[in-house]
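User: Design a sequence. Structure:
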């Protein structure tokens, strides 16, 4: 079967200081992360979000500046998606990141956002169980129904 190359990210910027947020082009669609610089030059992810409408990532960053002070985040990274990538796929990618980082998040808003995305799509959880002969039995469970 022939394979095709999947390109998701058109361009990206990583570990950009908060003061340089205006350099992000208008109407940039994609995923972004707000980061807090730690002692020793490491970065901690404090927020993961998407921008799929109107002003794009630049507008979303401005909203975060107005809501959160500099103590919450000092840098950001963004990943602009190609124009042919649908918004639904961008949401799924965000869901994957949120799912990975969910154990590190204790804020109610993240849990709410994660649950909202999960309910908006039909998702399945695949669990593996072993029978008495140590053979893998695959069982598929629906998490949410639309």
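Assistant: Done.
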């Amino acid at each position: 079967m022939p394979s095709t190359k999947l390109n998701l990210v058109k361009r990206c910027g990583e570990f950009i200081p908060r003061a340089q947020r205006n350099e992000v082009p208008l109407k940039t669609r994609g995923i972004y992360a707000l980061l807090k610089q730690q002692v020793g030059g490491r970065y901690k992810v404090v927020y993961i979000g998407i921008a799929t409408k109107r002003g794009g990532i630049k507008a979303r960053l401005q909203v975060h500046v107005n809501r959160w002070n500099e103590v919450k985040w000092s840098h950001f990274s963004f990943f602009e998606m190609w124009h042919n990538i649908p918004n639904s796929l961008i949401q799924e990618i965000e869901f994957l990141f949120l799912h990975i980082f969910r154990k590190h998040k204790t804020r109610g808003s993240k849990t709410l956002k994660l649950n909202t995305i999960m309910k908006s799509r039909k998702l399945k959880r695949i669990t593996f169980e072993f029978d008495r002969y140590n053979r893998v039995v695959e069982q598929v469970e629906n998490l949410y129904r639309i």
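The beta strands are 9-17, 30-37, 43-51, 75-81, 124-130, 136-142. The chain has one domain: 9-121.
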